[in-house]
Amino acid sequence: MLVYAISRDDALAPAASELHEVCAAGLRALVEPVDEPLSADLEELVHYEETVETVMRRHTILPMRFGSIVDDEREVRDLLKARAREFASALAQLDGAVEFGVQASLKPDSGPATAGGSAAGPGDSHMRARLAEQHCRRDLQAWLDTALDGVVRKRAYRVTAVCALGSLSAAYLVDRADEGEFLERIEGLAATADHTLSWSGPWPPYTFVEELEASRR
User: Fold this and answer.
1) How confident is the model at residue 172 (pLDDT cuts 50, 70, 90)?
2) Is the pTM of this model over 0.85?
3) What is the Cα–Cα distance from 111 to 135, expressed in whole angstroms?
4) Nearest-CA neighbor of 51 among 99, 12, 5, 9?
5) Does domain 97-216 bear CATH number 3.30.420?
6) Domain residue ranges in the chain
7) Any idea what DSSP says for residue 38?
8) Which residue stretches of the chain are H helix?
9) Is residue 76 classed exposed, middle or buried when 0-12, 13-18 and 19+ CB atoms within 10 A define those classes?
10) Is the distance from CB of 3 to CB of 17 less than 8 angstroms?
11) How far apart are the C-alpha atoms of 62 and 87, rounded to whole Å?
């Protein structure tokens, strides 16, 4: 069984016709019988994500990453029972919210100066550049925190392998009722002279499910 998401066991249909419901302990896993190994080609990944997003529109969910496999319905029920309190708590924290991704960076002509003095060696120059980069990302985070105050429930900032120098990757948990204002503020920020912004969403709250998993460990 391929697990797409976990939600509350409510009266709503799963919102995706190919999914089966497996219920226990007041929770519902939305699953699909599959043959292993999974193909994991691009078409299958896109289908999986579209299905999770379809479910997200009607339910508060804990979205599962592609490839979350259990042997059978009995194992699904055992999982729901064993982690019922944890899953219920996570659903309460994510209730009525979606995730937006934002990439922020300084425009090249407004980036931090990194040049050292004429006597600086390569090691010193490298450390100065790293320190300037750290300050730049700290300032970007503070700028976003101030600008989005009041329309963000939770936030997570990351520096990833695809982050360019002077840039920051952010994920925001936003109440559905605040989606419009959040996007208005982001669009307003994108018009500023010194920063470049790109954004995407709404998405299932993968980042914040991962955070909850990490805190549990």
Assistant:
1) very high
2) no
3) 11
4) 5
5) no
6) 2-94, 97-216
7) P
8) 42-56, 73-82, 84-94, 122-147, 179-190, 206-216
9) buried
10) no
11) 8
- Residue 108 is classified by DSSP as G
Mean pLDDT of 99-123: 64
pLDDT reading at 122 higher than 80: no
Structure tokens at 93: 């924290």
**Structure-block tokens of residue 44:** 């299958």
| Long-range interactions of 19-27: CB distance < 8 A, separation 24+ | 19/51, 19/55, 22/73, 22/76, 22/77, 22/80, 23/77, 23/80, 24/76, 24/77, 24/80, 24/81, 24/84, 25/80, 25/81, 25/84, 26/84, 26/88, 27/80, 27/84, 27/87, 27/88
Q: Say if residues 3 and 61 touch (Cβ distance below 8 Å).
A: no
Which residue matches tokens 């990944």?
45
Distance CA 43, CA 183 (A): 29
